[in-house]
Specification:
Blueprint: H1 2-30, H2 50-72, H3 78-114
Helix pairs in contact: 1-3, 2-3
Length: 115
């Protein structure tokens, strides 16, 4: 079981490193301003990811807030729902950073393939 856990950590770490390396060209071209800019206009080569990042974080935060009472075992029938709620919260916490890293890289690849 310990080796399986290490393997998962290695796979996730490799994914994070690969995403960081693949996103370097976009970061060099658009800079870090890309993360806080609001304008998204491919015709003018203006790309801002803030609305996408905000939407992702807001929807995940709402889902986490809804799941917390179940994960704490509060409410009617919570003992049966608690393991699922803990798994959902873990999935959101693990998936949110990956989504925020994948989104800029994916948009860059899609935009590049349309040219």
């Amino acid at each position: 079981m310990f080796l399986a856990s290490l393997l998962i950590l290695l796979i996730v770490g490799t994914m994070i490193i690969a995403l960081a390396v693949k996103s370097l060209p976009a970061m060099r071209q658009f800079g870090l301003h890309f993360l806080i800019a609001r304008q998204w206009n491919p015709a003018a080569s203006q790309f801002g990811a803030l609305p996408f990042i905000y939407g992702t974080i807001a929807s995940s935060a709402i889902a986490l807030l809804i799941s917390v009472p179940l994960a704490l075992g509060i409410g009617l029938g919570a003992q049966m729902q608690q393991p699922l709620a803990v798994a959902v919260i873990g999935g959101f916490l693990a998936g949110l950073p990956l989504l925020l890293l994948v989104l800029p890289s994916l948009m860059r690849l899609l935009y590049k393939s349309n040219k």
